[in-house]
Structure formats: structure tokens, C-alpha cells
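Please check this today:
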Amino acid sequence: MNQFLFSLLVVITLCGQQQGNFLQEKQENQIFTIKLKETQKIVTAKEMYDFLSTKQTYFRQHTPIDIQEIEFGGYVPKLQQNEQTKKTSLKLHNFRNTQFTGPITVGDQEFQVIFDTGSANFWIDSVKCKNEGCKQHTQYKPSLKSKHLGYALNVEFGTGDLNGEINSDIVRLGEIEIEDQNIAEIIEENGSVFQNTGFDGIVGLGYPSMAAYNFNPLFDNIIKEKKLKSNQFSFYMSNQVNSYESQITFGGYDVTKLDGQVHYHPVIDKYYWMIQADNILINGKDQGFCPKGCKIIADTGTSLITGPFEDLMKLLDLTNINDDCSNLNQLPKLTFRIDGVDYDLDSKEYIMELRDDGTEIPLNNDVSASAFIQGTSDRCIGAFMPLDIPDPQGPAWILGDIFLKKYLSIYDRDTNMVGFGKAKH
């Protein structure tokens, strides 16, 4: 087995060589598109848990390791603007799977960041950081418009930590400009979690209750300054490898990316973008996953689908994947029923297949399917991972990019709703 292929496939985004202008304006409706590139990396379950922990505001235990890059996909966020226009110890819970990166300007510099609905803080590496992990990324140097706030930031890991401080500077997303956005500058990185990653920071798009020191997340400042006609944003994630077709839209969503109706679901806890599922079905049958309903988190910073440990083990058992993947076409349909609406995933949408070198290939009947569960093969990977989220937010399931590629997702702060509609690919 290839030494970099372990029990889990974790997709970690790297910004690619940028081609042409990032910002393209459509004059008729003031939509600004930022192009992004997605690639893929492989890490172990522990490292995956480490990174996922790092994007959250409150951490849980985790442990980092080395990563190998392989090409994966593409991402293009679209920015739509409608003119009318001191110490906290944080626990991060970061399942870093398929991540999408795009440009954002802080002060006078451009950074490649992950736009993440599963966290609320905005952090980038500082020029003050001398560790190797920081040096591999664009490092932030305060502009003349920056303000020193000096709030301390500490993120603890099983094998290291991050230290920094929260200050403020001017931030631009396309034509959207925020003059005093708080930013966590990372000034020390102990551990290897971020050394080989291709992004410079994370922009959290979660609710302000999740943010450190009760500072406003970026989107809350956009709301406060009335930059948008509609206080919502949306994600379209393309299936095209190395393409620039994916997009994030601020102020609405792109109807041309939809293949059907959008259904909206109320947020039940203004911390995560959390909604309530009626049930989780296997081939349309109730298997007892949600006797009183299930909490569901829509998280663009997580690529896999995660669930409580016991429930996820039961799900994997019920899917009954043969070791050689010979029953791939007979594997059951997975359905998330939310407010009476069924969101289906077929087997080829929740199983991934890899060559020995880690590159993805079309699914067929010739490879081992127990790789994800047993870690004994480097070929067939199930896009699931157990994760026990504690109270009060948990237990909960996370719908990551595996799900969000099939369904365009809309996050509406005016109505506190999450919308899903089948994406056009």
C-alpha cells in the first residue's frame, strides 16, 4: 500500500497557479466572480481530525501529521454585491476534506483562503511568524489602515499549538469593502498541521456566537454596513477536476447553477448553520438513526459526511460494501429527509476510488471497498467519518462537500434559513 494512503481520504485544498484575472464583473447585475482552484491531499484520520479542529472556534482533542498532494478539483466563488451597498483558548474541530480556496485582500495583500461555514473566525499567517509553516504561505503585514487591538489567541493541539493576536485591518471581497475587520494574526505555529497546506487562512462564515471575544465575523460586518440587498451567500461546488466553475455568491445565488427547486430549512441553533432532519434512510427505509430527529450541520469546511460514532458504524454496516467493491452498483441509496424533503446520495456519490499513487479514477468493480473502514486498501474510499460532537451542539451529523457538491447551498441571515437545491453539473 502506498505509504501516504491510510484509512481515510482527506481532501485538503491548495491554491493553484492562478490564471487570468480573479475578478470578473457582470455589469448587468453587479455580480463579481472570484476564481479558485481545488486540489486534494491524503492524511490519516488523526490528522484530518486535527485540521478540522483547527477551523472551529472551540477545539477538541486532535493530532497532526504529514500530507501528500494529488490533483483533485476546481472551485470558483462568485461574489454578488447589490448596492443600496485579551486571552481566549479556542478548541477547533476541523474535518479538512475537500476545501475550496479563493482570493481575499487584507490591507494591501491578497491571500488564498478557505470560506468556511463551520467556523466564525478570520485568521491568516503573520509576517511576525518565523516558523516554517508560516513561511510557506503569504504572510500578513499590517497596512497603514490597520489597528492594533492586541487580544491574545491560543489554539492547542495534541502535538503543538498556534499563538497569535487579534487586530484589525481593511478587507476587500470583490467590490465589498470592510474597513475595520478583526483578523487573527498567527505569530507562532508549533506543529506540522499547516506546513504543507496551500491556503493562507480561513474566513469563518458561521454565526457570531462562535467567534472569539464576541468580535463580528466578516459576514456580520457586511450585514452591519448594509453592503448587500439580501444578507445571504451561497456555494456551488463543481465536480470538474482542476476547473474554475465552482463559486461562492454573496448577496444571493446563481439560478443558472440550479437543476430544480430550492427548499429552505430553519436554523435551530445560531452557532453552526444547523438544521433539523426528520430521518436518515437507507434505500428509503428507517434504520433508527433519528428517533427524535437529527441535528444536521451544513459545513463547507468539511468534505466528508460525519456522524456520531455508533450511528456511523451502523450506517457503514448497513451499506454492506464488499471488500472488492464488486457490489458497487447494488449499494443502497442514502437519504437525508429534512422537513419532508428527500436529499439522496447514490453509491457513486459517497464512494471514492483511488489509484495506487492516490489519483482519483472512475469507480468500477475491480477495487477494494473496505479501505475507508479498515484502512487495508488504497483503492476504494467511503466518504464518511465518525465524529462525536458534544453537547450542547451535538450529537449532530455534518454534511460536508460530498453532499454540498450535489446540492447548491444557500445561507440566509435575513430569515435564518439554509436552502438546498440540486446543482446543475
In short: The mean pLDDT is 73. Helices lie at 45-55, 132-135, 218-224, 309-319, 347-350, 371-374, 401-404. The chain is about 10% helix and 35% strand.
